Here is the input.
Amino acid sequence: MSEHQVTLDQAIKLALDLLKTKNFTETENVCQQILQHSPKQADAYQILGLTYKSSNQLEKAKTALEQAIQYNPNKSEYHSNYGVVLQELSLIPEAIIAYQKAICLKPDYTIAFHNMGLALQENHQYETARAAYRTAIALKPDFAEAYYNVGCLNHELRLFKEARTAYEKSVELDNEYIPAHRNLSMVTLALGDFKVGWKEYEWRLKTEELRGLEKSAKKPRWQGEFLHNKRILVRCEQGLGDTIQFVRFIPMIKQFGGIVIFECPKELICLFKNTQWIDRVVERTRKGVPAVDFDLYIPLLSLPGLFNVNAENIPYYEGYVSLDQQEVDMWKSQFGSQKKHVGIVWSGSPKHPKDCDRSCTIERFLKFKQFPNIQLHSLQIGDSAQQLDKVKNDIYIKRYDHRIKDFIHTASIIANLDLVITVDTSVAHLAGAMGKPTWLLISYVPDWRWLLDGNDSMWYKSVRLFRQTKLDDWDSVFNEVFVAFKESEFN
Here is the structure.
């Protein structure tokens, strides 16, 4: 081997070592130096591509890997890594082709089969994706991540029992695999197995989003013992709807003799600051813990597991949020006495990972103009409220998006309504917690809290569920809603 070749091998090894230590700037520098001396060095382009991918420069990564493939088209690893980058760029059909090329060059390429399964699943080619996962598992029987993704596929297809089996196999193979535990909790809760579900749900606190919740507390976690007037910080987590739903468990802490300090999202402080069963409300901070003295802490969504909650013993089923009547009366002028008043929400938070599945559009509500004795009121806020401009010539809907400043405003409007019809968002929890008749529109793959079947909610007596019977099928949901409305007391 020539001196130049040895030097080149050493440089390639150095670049790989730098990449492993995440020293991306130096890795790029070494690769560029290699390419100055050897412009067609495919391995250098490959490492450069991985460097750009790791630093989220995906277009540069794509270009570098294309050059690697150009100079050595027979290297299966190049095609596989190219597929990963294409997938992250949402170029899914192209990614599938790249994985196929990798597999042609290396028929036992486990990770390529697995990643192709992910791309096929994202492309809604579910059975082909399942076959790819099966092959990956056959090649590597202890492949916990592949079993996890089989679970995700079944979950997405509403095959919850099959999803549970796959998630269980994944955690059997790797008991520290956090995503599998988290998803296992959701399917077991949706299936009504609360004993296992709440136990598995504790794994959410190990996810990247929530792992700081417990670490930052620096005090003992409450285990359910009598509190003897100790101060307990109830730590808020996740979304606004979750907070409204689970705050019902705080009065049970008072039964253990605790002084309750509730760490609350800023948007909800107005709703809970005068609640009798909360001694003090403090604003949730994005980092660390609120500057308040306390003896113990408990994450809010860990309370039902601690109290062994199931479908038969959920507290405050009939409602638990009350308002100042003066606040309610301030909005009363918006409501005449001649019509029934129906509040509507068609879109949840765009930040929610399942928002595209659980939200619909304002046009779905246009058929309500066939009911002359009702007045629609939009409870929608945010960018989605602008959809009202599209339909203002088709139907009259009162809007409040420029006037609603907090949840007290929303709650006061709801208090004056006869009915709320909403997609799965925080307004559904607020209306249910107020005991207001609420029709909740559920996507085909429901969130775990709504279970899989039935029209009643175990969480809120006043909530009626309308479920999609197939993926993205809002037509049948709204047909059912309109039929039910014709036959209801609200018509």
Observations:
- The chain has a mean pLDDT of 93.
- The radius of gyration is 27 Å.
